[in-house]
Design a protein that fits this description.
The protein is mainly beta and 409 residues long. It contains 2 helices and 31 strands. The strands form 8 sheets. Strands 24, 25, 26, 27 and 28 form a 5-stranded antiparallel β-sheet that branches. A 4-stranded antiparallel β-sheet has the order 3-2-1-31, with no helix packed on it. Strands 4-5-6-7 form a 4-stranded antiparallel β-sheet, with no helix packed on it. A hairpin with a 5-residue loop joins strand 24 and strand 25. The longest helix has 13 residues. The two termini are 21 Å apart.
C-alpha cells in the first residue's frame, strides 16, 4: 500500500497538469505576416472561469513559419498532440499534459521518402498512421504519396504507396483516413493540398494488417455535377461498416461493403454552397461547415435516404467556417475559418438529443461587443505580438482521462 501511495505521489510530481480539472483549447497558429515562428496557444475554455476565452499559455516552434495546418482531429488521451506545418512538411509533437506549461517534444519531416503529412490517426498499438501527399518530391508531377506508420516521436515503422495502376488518370494525393480495426480495413481519401496539382475524386480501401492498398473508387457526380471533387474526411457510422465521406465541393457519399472484395460508393446529399470544410459525425447527426454560405449546420442522418437539416448557425461574411472539433462529451464544438477568413474562434453548444446548435455568446474577448475570440493584434505569452491565423484547434481531455492513459503506458 505504501508503494502504491508513493507511485501516485511521484506521478503527480512528474506530471503536475494531470491534476488540472479545467478545460482548455489548444490552438495551432501562425504569424499572419509569416515572419515569426509558428506557435501553439492555450486558451481557457472553462465557461465558469473569469478568464474564459483568454490565452493562458503558448509555446513557439523553433525556426521560420511552415504554415500551421492540421492537428489531430481530437486531443489524444495520452496528452501529446501532433500538428503539421504543411508547407514545410514538418510534424511537431507537443506535450500538453500540463496545459499551463506546453512544451515542444520533437519535430520531424519526411519518412521513408514520403513527404508532406496531412492527417494523423492513433492505432490500438499506440502507433500513428498518417497520410503523406507525395513521394520523392513535391511538385505537381511528383509521385503520389501513401500511408506511413510511425511511433509518436516520428520513428518510422512501415509504409505503403497509394499509387494504383488501375486508375492511371486519377490524381493520387492522400488527404485523410480512418481505420476500421474490426474489419481489418482503412479508408483514405485523395485531395491535393496544392491547387496546381489538379483535381482529385478518389477514395481508397486498404487492409490494416499489412497496409496493402486493395482498391480505388472514383466518386461520381451528384445532381450539381461537381460534388465528387476533393474528397475530405471519411467518418464511420455507428454500425462500424458504413463510412460517410464528405467532399470540399459539398457532397456527401456513403462507402458500403468495405470489408468485401467489391466495396461501393454512392452519393447521398449535396449541401448548400460551393465549398464545405471539415465535418463531424456525432451520434446520428452530421455537423457540416458550409464555408461559402458562412454557416454551420447539423443534419439528422439516422435515415440515409432522408437526410434532413435540424439546425443552423449563420455567421457574417468574414467567417468562412472550415475547422471544427468537439469536446470529449460532444456537447461543445470549436469552429474557425483557418487561414481562409477572419482570424476568429467560436464556441458552439451542441445538443446530442436534438442536434440543436447554439452560439456561445459568452465566449469572446474581454470587453468586446463581438462574439468569438480574435487571434489578431494580441500579445501572446511566448512573446509574439501581432496578427495570427489559427487552424487545427482541439479541446483538452479531462484530467482523469490523461492520468489513466499515462498510467497505462
Amino acid at each position: 500500500m505504501r508503494n502504491l501511495c508513493c507511485f501516485f505521489l511521484l506521478l503527480s510530481c512528474v506530471v503536475p497538469g494531470l491534476a488540472q480539472p479545467n478545460s482548455y483549447l489548444f490552438v495551432w497558429a501562425g504569424d499572419d505576416a509569416k515572419k515569426d515562428s509558428d506557435f501553439l496557444a492555450v486558451l481557457d475554455a472553462d465557461p465558469k472561469s473569469p478568464h474564459y476565452g483568454q490565452a493562458v499559455a503558448s509555446v513557439a516552434v523553433p525556426g521560420p513559419s511552415g504554415t500551421p495546418h492540421h492537428t489531430e482531429l481530437q486531443m489524444p488521451e495520452d496528452g501529446f498532440l501532433l500538428a503539421n506545418a504543411f508547407e514545410s512538411g514538418r510534424t511537431t509533437l507537443f506535450d500538453l499534459r500540463d496545459p499551463l506549461h506546453p512544451t515542444v517534444v520533437t519535430s520531424f519531416g519526411d519518412l521513408d521518402g514520403y513527404m508532406h503529412p496531412h492527417t494523423y490517426i492513433r492505432l490500438a498499438n499506440n502507433h500513428v498512421l498518417a497520410t503523406f501527399q507525395y513521394h520523392g518530391g513535391h511538385e505537381p508531377k511528383s509521385d503520389g504519396g501513401g500511408l506511413v506508420e510511425f511511433d509518436e516521436r516520428g520513428h518510422f515503422i512501415r509504409s505503403s504507396s497509394a499509387i494504383d495502376p488501375t486508375v492511371k488518370g486519377e490524381l493520387i494525393r492522400p488527404y485523410s483516413l480512418v481505420a476500421l480495426p474490426a474489419l481489418d480495413r482503412i479508408v483514405s481519401t485523395n485531395t491535393a493540398m496544392h491547387d496546381q496539382d489538379g483535381d482529385s475524386r478518389t477514395v481508397q480501401v486498404w487492409r490494416l494488417s499489412d497496409l496493402r492498398m486493395l482498391t480505388t473508387l472514383v466518386l461520381q457526380p451528384g445532381p450539381r455535377g461537381s460534388e465528387q471533387k476533393y474528397p475530405g474526411e471519411p467518418l464511420p457510422l455507428g454500425d462500424g461498416k458504413t463510412v460517410l465521406i464528405h467532399t470540399f465541393t459539398c457532397g456527401l457519399y456513403a462507402l458500403d461493403a468495405v470489408d468485401t472484395a467489391h466495396p461501393t460508393v454512392r452519393h447521398l446529399k449535396t449541401f448548400d454552397g460551393e465549398i464545405c470544410g471539415v465535418p463531424l459525425r456525432t451520434g446520428h447527426y452530421w455537423v457540416a461547415t458550409l464555408t461559402t454560405v458562412h454557416a454551420l449546420a447539423a443534419y439528422d442522418i439516422s435515415d440515409l435516404a432522408n437526410i434532413r437539416e435540424v439546425s443552423r448557425i449563420t455567421f457574417d461574411d468574414k467567417q468562412k467556417p472550415h475547422w471544427i472539433s468537439a469536446d470529449a462529451d460532444n456537447r461543445r464544438i470549436v469552429m474557425n475559418s483557418g487561414e481562409h477568413g477572419d482570424h476568429r474562434l467560436f464556441m458552439v453548444n451542441f445538443d446530442p438529443q436534438t442536434g440543436a446548435l447554439t452560439l456561445d455568446e459568452h465566449f469572446r474577448d474581454a470587453g468586446s461587443d463581438k462574439v468569438g475570440v480574435s487571434m489578431d493584434g494580441k500579445s501572446w505569452p511566448h512573446g509574439f505580438k501581432g496578427d495570427a491565423y489559427e487552424h487545427g484547434t482541439v479541446f483538452s481531455r479531462p484530467a482523469a482521462t490523461v492520468q489513466k492513459a499515462a498510467m497505462q503506458k
